[in-house]
Amino acid sequence: MKVPVAVMSIIVVAALAAFSGQAQRGQTPAGRGQAAVPNNGVPRMPDGKPDLTGIWQVLDLSLDANIEPHTASWGVHAGQGVIIDPPDGKIPYLPASLAKRQENYKNRAKDPVAHCYKPGVPRINYVPFPFQITQTPAWIQVTYEFVHNHRNIYLNGSTHLPGIDFFNGDSRAKWDGDTLVVDVTNLNDDPSLVPTWFDASGNYHSDALHVVERWTRTSMDNMTYRATMEDPKVFSRPWTIEVLLYRHKEPNFRILEYECQIFKEKLAREGKGNFLRIVEAN
Questions:
Q1: Is the pTM of this model over 0.85?
Q2: What gap in Å lies between CA 210 and CA 34, rounded to an integer?
Q3: CA distance 91 to 83
Q4: How far apart are CA 221 and CA 42, in angstroms?
Q5: What are the boundaries of each domain within the chain?
Q6: What is the mean pLDDT of residues 160-180?
């Protein structure tokens, strides 16, 4: 059966229009054995993995003070907490460990971060400072504005380094669908070096802490960060936090230098703020 040229032209134009419309919506026709990737607004790397690059920050200023639900106090914003498991939003301390936490709270002026020590994982991701993610298929670096911190996250199948502790741990990762899963061990808890806390209220861990992070970019400007903590020396069961990260879009926004100097606040409280000019001039 012969098809008139005019009819064939109409068919071809209609097919091209349909294909063009599909391409404009960011969808590529699925080939045999390939499922179409849904367009949820998440950018992707050349290898097809979600692109996590950018400068990110938690905007909830209450988290660094206390990750459990808490009321407002001097210098502390009220917060609903970020613990999603257990459902009551409380850290499942062992009875003996809870006493240590209460002691830390009474001495919270000794918060390691307030004395310019590295925050550790997961706290480093929700202190009120931005951080920048740089991504390759085999390696991801996270550069934090707070006191020049950085983390190397390896995706090359390598194993954790035995017998070496780090303030921010040793991070090895893999992809679970569109979620980056990071296994973090070797977190420092040497009393002679100042151990890390989860927040400024004295929530703490031991040298047995194991953290599993899950980074999921959900849109152009948002990413869900979830971390599960396990430490049989301190907690009765694993527990999980979840926070929302926002991508900075301000023109020319970048990671800047932050030099943590604990004596500045002390001088200000003592009414000796003018001495800061002498210190900063030298």
A1: no
A2: 37
A3: 8
A4: 9
A5: 54-262
A6: 93
